[in-house]
Amino acid sequence: MMKRVKFPRSLLLLPLLGMLAGCNMVVMSPFGDIAMQQRDLIVVSTLLMLLIIVPVIFLTLFFAWRYRSANTSATYDPEWHHSTRLEVVIWAAPLAIIIALGAITWISTHKLDPYRPLDRIDAQRPLPADVKPLTVQVVALDWKWLFIYPEQGFASVNELYAPVDVPITFEITASSVMNSFYIPALAGQIYAMPGMRTKLHAVINQPGAYKGFSANYSGDGFSHMTFTFHGASQADFDAWVAKSKAGNGTLDRAAYLEFERPSEREPKRQFASVEDNLFDAIVNLCVKPGQMCAKDMMHIDMMGGAGKESQENREKLLYDTRHAEEGAGTNAATFPAHGNEARSPEAPNKETPHAAPADGGTQGHDMQGHDMGTMGSGATPAPEGGIAPKQLNQSN
């Protein structure tokens, strides 16, 4: 009678590994020079750590096998306690790897600083002195992306174009809550924060359409907060710019205030023209008429305050970028000062506005160009997960 050979049932899962062939490992196969350098940093760091991990795992398994109970020929010395040569190897190898990782980290942190202008197109080509970077102003909204081309004078929704081998300077902010601007094929992710301006310098080296998205959870519509980044030839980029500017729509302050209302699955479209200095108004939280800009408020603080007259500025500092007063806000888990319970039946699109206005005045400031100390708000913080303090909902 033949003996049956048993195979582990886990082997049945091996064919499923073939499905991984369809995965797009864009982080490890990027198309921009900055992302390629970050990829190389990941590979080098991993290999250095494996120099310790692999021997440790191997020796652990080897010792378990070598000194198993069935192997009576192995020398066993229960009194052994020290070996100088072994101690040198055990401590010198990890120390050398830590020093190497520290040096690589320090160099890469400065070399890949997102605020640092580019000095090369790729590993083989330095940046020509006569090449002018393309400036794109990025605004993360609920739940869509707005890209303003200030030099070309138009704006695009959920669609971004850039010429191949031309440096790009991104100026990034957000309208309400914190987000993260991320195009894996181009460069690393950069946070987008209301009242602040962050930067990213990058370049795309191959034409194609690449996915961009928010890498920071920001509410109900987060899953669909994606956009398409196109790396195009200069001719194709110029044609897209001309087509966009020949279309309809002007993005002035009134149009922006309507556009920033929370919405999901926003279709791709372009505004043929953009009001001057709109992005600066977004950063300084003063798009709405009558709002005091954050930079003006910081100037008042820097000068020592406005005294009793500062009471007149209070209404100008109440920000409602989520339009919660108009019933367009999200649930209390995202906007606690609104007064509704988290995940209430009214949320997110059919909310009943609270009787008192919501507060957004603690959203931060654009600190660019200022060197200032800590500024307190004077408001009592709300308990975690609770309704915002009463004074935040006072109307006067």
Automatic annotation (TrEMBL):
Residue stretches making up the Cytochrome oxidase subunit II transmembrane region profile domain: 19-116
Residues covered by region (Disordered): 327-396
InterPro entries per UniProt: CcO_II, CcO_II-like_C, COX_ARM, Cupredoxin, CuRO_UO_II, Cyt_c_oxidase_su2_TM_dom, Cyt_c_oxidase_su2_TM_sf, Cyt_o_ubiquinol_oxidase_su2
Xref: CDD domains: CuRO_UO_II
Keyword annotations of the record: Cell membrane, Electron transport, Lipoprotein, Membrane, Oxidoreductase, Palmitate, Respiratory chain, Signal, Transmembrane, Transmembrane helix, Transport
GO molecular function: copper ion binding; cytochrome bo3 ubiquinol oxidase activity; cytochrome-c oxidase activity; oxidoreductase activity, acting on diphenols and related substances as donors, oxygen as acceptor
Top-level taxon of origin: Bacteria
GO cellular component: plasma membrane
Keyword Cell membrane (UniProt): yes
Cytochrome oxidase subunit II copper A binding domain span: 131-243
Annotated Gene3D superfamilies: 1.10.287.90, Cupredoxins - blue copper proteins
SUPFAM superfamilies: Cupredoxins, Cytochrome c oxidase subunit II-like, transmembrane region
Major subcellular location class: membrane
One Pfam family cited in the UniProt record for this chain: COX2
Biological process, per Gene Ontology: ATP synthesis coupled electron transport
Subcellular compartments: Cell membrane
Topology class, membrane: Multi-pass membrane protein
TM segment ranges: 41-65, 86-107
Stretches with biased composition (Basic and acidic residues): 340-353
Entries under PANTHER family matching the protein: CYTOCHROME BO(3) UBIQUINOL OXIDASE SUBUNIT 2, CYTOCHROME C OXIDASE, SUBUNIT II
Family affiliation: Belongs to the cytochrome c oxidase subunit 2 family.
Protein known as: Ubiquinol oxidase polypeptide II
Organism of derivation: Xaviernesmea rhizosphaerae
High-level lineage: Bacteria, Pseudomonadati, Pseudomonadota, Alphaproteobacteria, Hyphomicrobiales
